[in-house]
Design goal:
Blueprint (H helix, E strand, L loop, with lengths): L3 H22 L11 E8 L7 E2 L9 E2 L20 E4 L4 E7 H16 L4 H9 L2
Antiparallel strand pairs: 1-5, 2-3, 4-5
Helix pairs in contact: 2-3
């Protein structure tokens, strides 16, 4: 071959691209410990119904037999805290269960909203630090 240096560079670039692509496609392991949960509110669950959070966004959470099937993709203040809440239908009732982080997160977001009433963007920036 007339240009072994060029061939070596092409192979090195292709190998680097494959390694970078493979690294972007892998996901880190989830190592969060499961925190304890506490029941908050209950509602009866009719047979044949599903149990879920009845609102799509925000901090006003309630569980019921008719959760929305589709929610908008917009993000609202408080949506970050929803990861610490779920509904449980064991025992015949639809119960809101929150992890210990929910109360802390909710209080932080509510402080951000109260502090940043004039600037919604600042409220979102504040919530990101909760």
């Amino acid at each position: 071959m007339k240009h072994p240096v060029v061939l070596t560079l092409v192979v090195a670039v292709l190998l680097t691209a494959v390694v970078l692509f493979a690294g972007c496609m892998s996901a880190p392991p989830d190592t969060k410990p499961m925190p304890p949960v506490s029941p908050v509110t209950t509602a009866p669950v009719p047979s044949g119904s599903s149990c879920g959070i009845t609102s799509c966004h925000g901090l006003d959470l309630a569980c019921g037999a008719n959760p929305p099937e589709v929610c908008t993709m917009e993000y609202r203040l408080g949506d970050k805290c929803r990861q610490y809440a779920r509904c449980d239908s064991s025992g015949g009732s639809c119960t809101l269960v929150t992890d210990s982080q929910f109360a802390t997160c909710k209080a932080c977001v509510e402080q951000c909203v109260a502090r940043e009433t004039a600037d919604p963007a600042a409220a979102f920036d504040c919530e990101a630090k909760c």
